[in-house]
Amino acid sequence: MNNFGRFFILCLFLAGIVNSAMAQRTITGKVTSVGEGSALPGVNVVVKGSTIGTSTDAEGQYSLGVPSGTVTLTFSFIGLEPQDITVSAGRSVVNVEMAESATELNQVVVTGYNQTQRKDVIGSITSLKSEKFKDIPVVGVDQALQGQAAGVQVSQSSGTPGGGISIRIRGNTSISASNRPLFIVDGVPVYTGAVSGRDFGGQSDNALAIINPNDIESIDVLKDASAKAIYGSRGANGVVIITTKRGRNNKTTITADVQRGITEIIKRPSLLNATQLLELQREAVTNAGQDPDKQGLIPGVTDGVNTNWIDAILRQGVLQQYQISAAGGNDRTRFYMSGNVRDEEGVQLNNRFTRYSGALNLDHKATSKLNLGANINLSLSKNDRVKGDNFLDGVYSGAIKSLPFYAPFNEQGQLYGPNSVGYAGFPNFNPVAQAVLPRFTTYGLKILTGVNADYEIMKNLRFRTKFSMDYNNAEEDQYESSGTAIGGYLQSVGGKGYGVYITNTVFTLINSNVLTYYLSLNDRHHFNALVGNEIIHTQARSSSVSGRLFPSDDFTYINSAGTVDAGGSFYDQNGLLSFFGEIKYDFDDRFLLGITSRYDGSSRFGQNRRFGLFPSVSAGWRISQEKFMETVPFISDLKLRGSFGFTGNERIGNYQFLGTWASATYNGATGVGPANLSNPNLQWERTREANIGIDAAFWDGRFTVTADAYSNLTDNLLFAEPIPLTTGFGSIQGNIGKISNKGLELTLSSVNVDGAVRWNTDLNLTRNINNVQSLANQDTLFRGYTGNGVGGTNAVLQGSPLGTFWGLKFLGVDPATGDAIYEDVNGDGRISPEDGQVIGNAQPKLFGGLTNKVSFKGFDLSVFFQFMYGNKILNFTNTALVNTGADLQTNQSTIALRRWKQEGDITDVPRYVSGDTYNNYLSSRFLEDGSYLRLKNLSFGYNLPVRWAAKAKLSSVRVFASGTNLWTLTAYSGPDPEVSTLDGSTTAQGIDFFTLPQVKTMILGVTVKF
Fold first, then answer.
1. Quick check: helix, strand or coil at residue 12?
2. pTM of the model
3. What is the pLDDT of residues 180-226, one digit of tens each?
4. I want to staple 222 with a disulfide (CB 3.0 to 4.6 A). Which of 227, 501, 621, 806 is the partner?
5. Are the C-beta atoms of 435 and 449 separated by less than 8 Å?
6. CB–CB of 846/765 below 8 Å?
7. Where is the secretion signal located (predicted)?
């Protein structure tokens, strides 16, 4: 080509460039979130139908050159609703507000040691974002799950702040081992047991209460074998994976949150006043054939004093919480940090829970191949406890039982003590004194920290290593003065005070190493594989000392005690060595396959069974991707999935496989003797799990359905296996018996209205059937309390669910005599323990939650109901409060007002007869329907317009009001159907024995972003 030709081509090229430049224009704008108005970085902005595009910067700003004329811009970001905006030729600025996507198919879900998109999940996993519980003033992360996830049953054991929470995922799988799920926070398995070494009347404290829920980004609940098998011998009870908030490539955002409100008990028990109780006592003595005016039969009192002891020991509590956090970063380093103070004044006098927490998460891109990360969560707590529940000297229980004839203070305003003059006949106890005089303080410390490195060895091949620690410490400082029941009355103490000091430390060190590889072939075959190993080492130490005979109540620490004669120390450890692997295959976005396995070795089991394999396989078919589904356009996504595999439970005490020796005393000589027999074949409980499910989304995600059916069978139950007494022992720790759980789960989500007004509804329902399939023998095992004449209240019985109640069947009251009628099962003409039978169970037939959220412009309203149906509650409190054997030293419930009084009365309360226990036998008379529907949370908020906030140099401002436990519909006669006297017990479920009810909370809050 000659020079002229080259010149001509160059001219054409330049002309094209000039023409193209003249035909283009630039559109700029800012992308923000709906409501909050905060900038959204990383949003994709593309000219529809072309490859022209860009993304927003850290300020949410973008600038894009587009062809002249009318164009359509598409704005998209994972988790946000995409938007198509038509831009006319004369328009150059386009600002966009983006809302959360109605569909969750593109949301990231944490699945063990990896992540995947919701649409590719083939296991049974429920995910919760922090928005679900941000306005609910929960203490711990376990409370945040209540009513929010199908298959997850959460109950707060009592209304004590910082108290225990019972959580079960797909039922109870064990009789004697732990039934709590495994909690993982940022990849670290965390300790979830009680921090303190002493429970108070069956109620323990809660280690999860000292993790700040406001630092949580998301919660993923793994429920079937395909999701849990990666955790092997720890996965049988389900796995809860918690991901905390992290920084973003964005300018630093500072958020301040303030909440303040009040707490009150949801319902007070209804008790007799002094006049009513005196009348009942005289009647009971008369029915016994005695003279009520005879001295000593009835305390020498009148109804001139009428104390409401419940009001005397309760108060309106104050709840306050303050948090400030900062998040931000650049393309190299991102950070999130927060500080939080939560202070909750309990409704009982002298009861308070205070928590100080802080978090720091760092992510740093050291090189193009190496990423580094670190996290630390630190919590300090102070828990001022009071004795409660079934403690003989409990505050709430004592107030219920105390006689109204007496007062807490004398004429000089001084508290009556156990030996006070003028308190003759009083049962050596003053509930108000028991509340305010002792000191039961627990100081808690939890440190959760870790560092990790992520290195790209080659394209799609990465190695990640993480070193972590979970540290828990509790110090208990206790003193009961001479004015309390123990410190002033117990003979072994000497009436001069009693002090206890306990320390308890549990820490876990973890190292995990994971190699992941991703391979794509022809854009149709996708492989995702990982292999790894994990080493976990746990140590526990505790010590205690007690003292008595203090010089006065002004000297309250052990070094002032006249006698220090009791104490002890304890140490143990355990370890877990694991290897695991996972392969996931995706063909053409239609067929999904997953294979997972973990090989665990636990120091808790015998030499012959120390290692075990826990495999699973899962498969999915995305039907919506098939050609024939193109004729059904309203179905956005339809996926059928199934899984089968095995998980285990190794959470029992340490060294139980060993033949151990212990100190022993015989005939005044001290030595050692055998304590337990060895069992080298002791192994973990194993659960076989099968699950089939369906995920469907309609009308671009406006309506979604997730349904699961599962069948789980746990064998090798860890249990005390009976052996002949000729061995010198009654039992040996072994693996016997089977428990099954079968159930259905349904989750529905809908966007009912989507416009200026947006209305979402979420509903989840669960039906779980629990059954003890087999035991070492068919003898009924009683757990829990002892009933009058007929054994225990809870029975572990082959063919029945855990939580089964055992007792006499109450048939009513004989109108002629006023005596109870019980079913004579064996027909021998008398009522005896042999007439005991199954009278109900504590397992609900159905449970779940319903949430409705409505937003309009800057306003939002959330209404959350939580419910349980078909479960029974043993109102064991009424064995004392409707005690027809007339315990004259205990007040009675107003239920006693409908007692039988004369021939012909039709009632369900037998006559009162002093000293006669026949009418008070443990029977179905004390068993009630525990079903309830509870308005768990109601919150109303308002986001100030962005322009108003901007005038104050703020990014956004939100004010809100929130209330919890505001209303309950139930037939249960007790104050609260959601209680459990023995916190977290598997066998003794559904028992209400002087248990402090839940509290309702009403708060006002404001959230400000800078």
1. helix
2. 0.84
3. 899 998 888 888 877 777 767 666 667 777 778 888 888 889 999 99
4. 227
5. no
6. yes
7. 1-23
